[in-house]
Design a protein that fits this description.
The structure is a single chain. This protein has two domains: about 280 residues, 3-Layer(aba) Sandwich (Aldehyde Dehydrogenase, Chain A, domain 1), CATH 3.40.605.10; about 140 residues, Aldehyde Dehydrogenase, Chain A, domain 2 (3-Layer(aba) Sandwich). By secondary structure, the protein is an alpha/beta fold. The termini are far apart. About 40% of the residues lie in helices and about 20% in strands. It has 13 helices and 18 strands. Keywords: Oxidoreductase. Pathway: Amino-acid degradation; 4-aminobutanoate degradation. Its EC number is 1.2.1.24.
Length: about 425
């Protein structure tokens, strides 16, 4: 089946809603150089089409920006086999040889940072300033591991026998399955893959179904950098095929290592599947981070910290603060200044607009979850001080809640959205416990 390659999309948000800036009612175009907008899987150094395709949507408009090959278990198995075959030659490369190739890959990311950032913004909704920051962050991993590849040292251990020496040599484990999230569609790949390739491992990447374009662009640049066939493979797939593809990547006996970033529930499933073959696993799962403000705090610094830790990427990062506990003596001043900061600093809009700070949530399901948490909190006595409403499509107003209690959903579940709930606490340590 032929693959649709969309070089330019024109998206228009038609419905005029209060709270959305005028910029949201314009046309938006995704313009990137043709080689970077790849829509096929990348297996064994070849671009491969699957029997079907799935759409990639701009979450700001709901419009299709590309159709990507919907790889299944067969393509995943081909990728694992290719990675295993390539491992035997890749591990024999010298550290210097691997270092040079990773450095070339880094240079290409830096060269194409503008186009790569546009891809992130249009497939994830992230504001362009944050997308540019992510590309710099992504490239830095390749730069770091290109240098660390030369410094994989062993050890000499004292021997109990006079006629023997004990040497410890570090060896690559083999094929690594890399399963990455949508909120950092470039950085989470280079962070994992850079380390694996530097060590001499080969990889199969399954990017998030919402954001496959960034992963495929990285594959294009890896190919340009000279990364050998089979060393770096990408198998994009739809949400419907993700369980079957994930099963191959976690159960195939040729896979030695799994690295996953995502929800705790999914991480548990992957660990169970990997248990039968006792694979090494690295899991970066969900969080529920607290943000604690004591009476002795500098209120201006506390507000600045809350803004930075809550509203980055519209609250869609695993390190976003989720629960805010503020002592009574500083509570009212903190809430007043926080509300003013939200009014002054947060701008909802399409991520390609330079003044946008809050893009859409990744999809309508994510927006519905935030609405559910707000509704639950209000039904239990919380007060909405700012926002609280869902806007068009996947957009959500940045929301500030007061009178929050520990029995509310927003205090029990990770939000992954622009919701800032505050518990007023007289005895903070008791609340923490």
């Amino acid at each position: 089946m032929s693959t649709l390659c969309v070089l330019r999309t024109r998206c228009f948000l038609r419905q005029v809603l209060p709270g959305l800036p005028a910029a949201m009612h314009r046309h938006y175009s995704l313009d990137v150089s043709a080689p970077l907008l790849r829509t096929q899987g990348y297996v064994d150094g070849r671009w491969v089409s699957a029997a079907s395709v799935f759409p990639v949507l701009d979450p700001a408009t709901g419009k299709e920006i590309a159709r990507v090959s919907d790889c299944g278990p067969a393509e995943a198995k081909q990728a694992v086999d290719a990675a295993y075959k390539a491992f035997h030659s890749w591990k024999q490369c010298t550290a210097k040889e691997r270092s040079i190739l990773l450095r070339k890959w880094f240079d290409l990311l830096t060269l194409h940072k503008e186009d790569l950032a546009k891809l992130i913004t249009f497939e994830s909704g992230k504001p362009i300033r944050e997308s540019l920051g992510e590309i710099a962050y992504s490239a830095s991993f390749l730069e770091w591991f290109s240098e660390e590849a030369r410094r994989v040292y062993g050890d000499i251990v004292p021997s109990p026998a006079k006629d023997r020496k004990i040497l410890l040599l570090k060896q690559p484990v083999g094929v690594a399955s890399i399963i990455t999230p949508w909120n950092f569609p470039s950085a989470m790949i280079t962070r994992k893959v850079g380390a694996a390739l530097a060590a001499g491992c080969t990889v199969v990447v399954k990017p998030a179904e919402d954001t496959p374009l960034s992963a495929l662009a990285l594959a294009e640049l890896a190919e340009q950098a000279g990364i050998p066939a089979g060393v770096f493979n990408v198998v994009p797939c739809s949400r419907e095929k993700t369980p079957a593809v994930g099963e191959v990547l976690c159960t195939d006996p040729l896979v030695a290592k799994i690295s996953f970033t995502g929800s705790t529930a999914t991480g548990k499933l992957l660990l169970k599947m990997a248990a039968d073959t006792v694979k090494k696993a690295s899991m970066e799962l969900g969080g529920h981070a607290p943000f604690i403000v004591f009476d002795s705090a500098d209120v201006d610094k506390a507000v600045a910290g809350a803004m930075a830790s809550k509203f980055r990427n519209s609250g869609q990062t695993c390190v976003c603060s989720n629960r805010f506990l503020v002592q009574s003596g500083i509570h009212d001043r903190f809430m007043e200044k926080l509300g003013k900061a939200m009014d002054a600093e947060l701008r909802v809009g399409h991520g390609s607009e330079p003044d946008t700070t809050q893009g859409p949530l990744i999809n309508t399901r994510a927006a519905e979850k935030v609405v559910q948490q707000v509704s639950d909190a209000v039904s239990r006595g919380a007060k909405v001080l700012k926002g609280g409403k869902r806007l068009d499509g996947s957009f959500m107003e940045p929301t500030l809640l007061a009178n929050v209690t520990t029995d509310m959903l927003c205090m029990k579940e990770e939000t992954f959205g622009p919701l800032l709930p505050v518990i007023r606490s007289v005895r903070l340590l008791c609340s923490w416990n």
